Amino acid sequence: MRYVIGVMMFSLARLYHAYLFVLIIIGIDQITKLIMLALIFEPPRIIDIMPFLNLVPVYNTGVSFGLFSQSGIWGQVILSGLALAVGVLLPYISRNWLRFQRWGAIMMAGGALGNAIDRLLWGKVVDFIDLHLGGWHWPAFNIADSAIVIGVGCILFGAWRHDLDEHDLDEHDLDKKNNSDE
C-alpha cells in the first residue's frame, strides 16, 4: 500500500510542477504582450532592435505565424477550443514521457493557452517579433508561438534521441530493475 501511495504522490508532484510551469509560460507571454501593447501598438510604430529583428504591431486571427487567419468566427471558436484542450490535457497526457518530451509538452501547453487567452480577450492574438533577412520577413510571432515551436522541437528531438538514460526512473522502475538483478 505504501508503494502505491508513493507512486501516486510522485505522479501528483510531477503534474503539479507541469501545470506550474505552464502558468509561468502563460505569465511571461501575457506580460510581454501587455508591454508591447503599450510600447508599439498605441500608437502603432516599429522599433528596430538589430539588423534582423524588429518589434512590430501585428494582430493575428489565425494560429502560429498567421496560419488559418481567414477562418472567420467559427475558426476562432474551434481554434480557441483546441488550444484550451491542448493546454489542459497535454501536461497530463505527457506525465510519463521522457523528460525532454515532457518539457516540450509543457511549453506547447503554455503557448497554446497564452494565445487562447488573447483570443478570448481581444478576438485575436498579439504578435510583435519580426525576424527578417534582407527583404524577406518571417511572419510576426510572440513568446507563446516560440514556446509552441520549441516544444514541438523538444518532442521530436526526444523521439529521435530516445534513450533509456533520458528516462525518469520512478520508484516503480527502480523496483523492477532491482528485482530483475536478483
Describe the structure.
This protein has five helices and four strands. It is an alpha+beta fold and 182 residues long. The protein has one domain. The chain has a four-stranded antiparallel beta sheet. The radius of gyration is 20 Å and the shape is globular. The model has no long low-confidence stretch (mean pLDDT 85).
The biggest sheet, with number of strands, parallel, antiparallel or mixed sense and barrel status, is: 4 strands, antiparallel
Strand content: 5-15%
Residue stretches low in confidence (pLDDT < 50, at least 5 long) are none
Assign a percent range to the helix content: 55-70%
Overall structural class, as computed from helix and strand content, comes to alpha+beta
Specify the overall morphology: globular
Strands side by side in the biggest sheet: 1-2-3-4
Supply database-style keywords.
alpha+beta; four-stranded antiparallel β-sheet; 182 residues; 4 strands
In brief:
This protein is of the alpha+beta class and 182 residues long. It contains five helices and four strands.
Task: Summarize the SSE layout with pairings.
Blueprint (H helix, E strand, L loop, with lengths): L1 H38 L7 E4 L2 E8 L11 H22 L5 H24 L2 E9 L2 E2 L5 H18 L10 H11 L1
Helix pairs in contact: 1-3, 2-3, 3-4
